[in-house]
Design goal:
The protein is 56% helix and 13% strand. With 170 residues, the chain is an alpha/beta fold. It binds shikimate-3-phosphate. Residues 10, 14, 33, 44, 78-80, 117-119 line the site of shikimate-3-phosphate (S3P).
């Protein structure tokens, strides 16, 4: 059975959708961020602060490689997983990749107040979201499917993803 990978910007609802999809499709979910945190025994912010983004991306790549080899699982990918073409290739080799797209303002509303995302711990997070989303768009577009998450309920996003996944399974 194919894997179902969810990609998208921070705060676009990947983790909440992954949990819901796990119930609907009776598939186990793995979060790249959670695996990194439990392996490193420290928070992502701490990894970034102490060892830098490059170190984080190296571990992330290894984690993606390992989970991609599993079968019939949901993979909740950190927002930057798609930056490395090798990650996208690994995810696609054994399944489909769905990009949940949200507009910057909607993302900002979802993440404001949280300090758990080192990349957005800046003076003007909305501006950073706009710049980064713009830069990352060509990478997100490498996904097999795109689902719009702006102002959509988790239920309606999941309905679309279930439809896509069931069609792929046929
Ligand atoms: C990142 C997204 C985060 C986490 C890390 C870097 C990114 O995951 O992997 O802070 O570069 O977009 P979420 O998308 O789950 O917040």
């Amino acid at each position: 059975m194919k894997n179902l990978s969810l990609v998208g910007f921070m705060g676009s609802g990947k983790s909440t959708c992954a949990k819901r999809l796990s119930e609907i499709l009776s598939m186990e979910t793995f979060s790249t961020d959670q695996i990194i945190v439990s392996r490193e025994k420290r928070a992502i912010t701490e990894i970034f602060e102490t060892d830098g983004e490059e170190y984080f991306r190296k571990i992330e790549k290894q984690v993606v490689k390992e989970i991609s080899l599993m079968e019939g699982v949901i993979i909740d990918c950190g927002g930057g997983v798609i930056l490395n073409p090798e990650n996208v290739e690994n995810l696609k080799n054994n399944g489909i990749v769905v990009y949940i797209h949200s507009d910057p303002e909607f993302i900002y509303d979802c993440i404001k107040g949280s300090t758990q995302r080192p990349i957005l711990n800046v003076a003007d997070p909305l501006l950073k979201i706009k710049e980064l989303l713009n830069y990352r768009m060509p990478f997100y577009q490498k996904a097999n499917y795109r689902v719009d998450g702006t102002k959509k309920s988790i239920e309606s996003i999941c309905d679309k993803i279930v439809e896509i996944y069931k069609n792929e399974r046929k």
